[in-house]
Fold:
Amino acid sequence: MVDYIDNQPGFAKCMFQNGFGDEIIIYEKIPVLTTRLINQETPLPTTLDLPGFIDSVEYETKTILNFTTDHNIEDNCGNNHFMIKKEDLIIHT
Structure:
C-alpha cells in the first residue's frame, strides 16, 4: 500500500510490478485486503495481502506465475489476472 484514500471504509492505493517490470496499480477497500487496522496515521508504504490464486506456471524456467485475484479486485485498467515473478509472491495457505 502506498497511499490511504478516503475514510469510509478506507481505500488503499496499492502498487506492484508484474513479471515483466510493468507497474500495476490497484485501488481497493482496505477491509478486502487486510484485517489489520489501517488508517491515515499508518506509516506508508506498508504490505497488504492481495487475495487470489495461482492459475498456472508460465515459461520453461517456471519463474512466472499466472495469478488471478479474488473478490472482483481489479487494477486501474480492469484486469484481475497478472503474471507475477514467483519470488515476488508470499503464498498463505
User: Anything to note?
Assistant: The longest strand covers residues 11-17. The helical segments are 30-33. The CA atoms of residues 2 and 45 lie 5 Å apart.
